[in-house]
Every structure is written in C-alpha cells, then in structure tokens.
Specification:
Strand order of the largest sheet: 3-2-1-4-5-6
Oligomer: single chain
Radius of gyration: 18 Å
Number of domains: 2
Strand content: 5-15%
CATH superfamily of the largest domain: HAD superfamily/HAD-like
Shape: globular
Order of helices and strands: HEHHHHHEHEHEHEEH
Structural class: alpha/beta
Length: 261
C-alpha cells in the first residue's frame, strides 16, 4: 500500500464510519437537479502555482508541486482525524515547508510568500463563466462547497469578477473539518434547503467525488487532469474534462435539451 493509498483509506474510514449502517447512499433515479454545488477547484485554476514553482526551481518545480499537493491534503486529514484542526491556508503553508525540506530546496521567505500568495486569489478556468451562465439560465441554483478558507474563496471570487454568481459560498472551515467528512457535505443540503438527490456535486479530485457519493449526492467528476478513477467503491454519476460536459450532463438529466455553455 502506498502512502497516498494509506491516507485515502484513513479518510474513507472517517467518512464511512458515520454511514456504515447504510452503505453508499444512492441518488433517486430520475430526480431533477435543482442546484449544483462545486468544489473549489473545478472553478479555480491551480496551474499558475506549478508555473511559478518551475520559475523558482527550474527542473524541480513539478516535483515540488507534487510533493506539496500530497502533504497539503495529508496534513488536513491527519489534523482533522487527530483533533488538531488547522485550516486550509495553514496546512497549505505547512505542506510547502515540508515539501521543500524533503526535496532539499532552498525555500527563501520571498519564494515562500510568492507561492503562497497565489492561493489568496487563484484565477478561474476559462470555461467557468460560460458554464455558470448556462446553468443559471437553465434555472439551477449554484453554490461552492470547499475545504478552502472563506478568505481564499472570497479572494478568488472577487478577483475573477464572480461576485454574486453563487447563492452560497460554503467553507468546511466553519465546522473545523474537511471533506470527505459527511458533516462537510451536509452543509450543502442545509444551506440550499434541498434533498441531496436534487443537488449535483461537482468534484475536482477523485476522492472528493467518492466522498460525495458516499454521502448520497449525485456526483459529476470534473476530471481536468485526466486521472484514473480512485478504487474507493463509489463511482461518479458522470465525468468529463471540463464544465461544458457538466452542463450537458445536467441538461440531459433534467430533460431540458442541450444547454450551450
């Protein structure tokens, strides 16, 4: 078992424990979608982080980002499971510090600040605004349900000119936990006042798609990185490389015809 698989197993155990008597919840067949709840990263584009990392550490930027991303999420889950919560910003910074030490890179204060500042206002993917417009035109309510802190989410939304695009901007920081904790996903049903089968969850990571399905959300995996499906016993209801595929999926499900993004 690899280190990554080990921590996925820990996360699964935490989420599955609350639902073990029910197993994986299944959305009701034929339910129309009334809302879409997005993870942060189908909206926000992290690619500039890799670009800057390569500028700072030529030939090593990819290694730094890969090690950083792994620790970023491992630290979140470990802290949540151990009752030592730290928010997304703090775990992102701690993950960067460790990754640089692991790779024996000289992480100067200036380099650290430059890399971290990117997370304060990440840009959006090019397909976001057209897709959100199409979904709203089709009558869908929109929300973000993310592990990112409120400050990070608000900074990205303001910088992208998306103020008012989402009815709810939900951060798991409010509960001092992280997805895939079922309590995190429940924030969506509580805020929107809808049954889970009417809320399509749009995930960026395979583990998040699985976590949403464990909770009972119909799930679309926005698989922008072309990753294989995680072997976690819960497949998404749909998947595609971007938000145009999500718009088409919603249109087909709601029998409303094709909605052009």
């Amino acid at each position: 078992m690899t280190r990554s698989q080990f921590f996925r197993l820990i996360a699964w155990s935490a989420a599955a424990g609350a639902w073990s008597s029910r197993g994986v919840a299944s959305p009701k067949a034929g339910s129309r979608f009334s809302a879409v709840a997005f993870d942060g990263f189908p909206i926000f584009d992290p690619r500039p982080v890799a670009k800057v990392a390569e500028e700072l550490y030529p030939g090593r930027g990819g290694d730094l980002v890969a090690a950083w991303r792994t620790r970023q999420f491992e630290y979140q889950w470990l802290r949540a499971l151990g009752g030592q919560y730290a928010d997304f910003w703090a775990t992102t910074a701690d993950g960067l510090d460790f990754a640089a030490r692991q790779l024996r890179l000289d992480l100067t204060p200036q380099a650290r600040d430059r890399l971290m500042s990117l997370f304060a206002a990440l840009p959006i993917w090019p397909d976001v605004k057209p897709a959100l417009g199409a979904l709203k035109q089709a009558g869908l309510r929109l929300a973000i349900l993310s592990n990112m802190t409120p400050k990070m989410l608000d900074g990205g939304i303001r910088a992208a000119g998306l103020t008012g695009a989402f009815e709810h901007i939900l951060s798991t920081d409010r509960l001092k936990t992280y997805k895939p904790d079922p309590r995190a996903y429940e924030m969506g049903t509580q805020a929107l006042g809808l049954p889970r089968e009417e809320i399509l969850f749009a995930a960026f990571a395979g583990w998040d798609a699985a976590g949403a399905r464990w909770f009972g959300y119909p799930t679309f995996w926005v698989n922008r990185l072309g990753q294989p499906e995680d072997a976690l016993g819960a497949s998404p209801d749909g998947s595609g490389a971007g938000l145009s595929e999500l718009v088409e999926f919603v249109a087909r499900r709601n029998q409303a015809g094709h909605v052009e993004p």
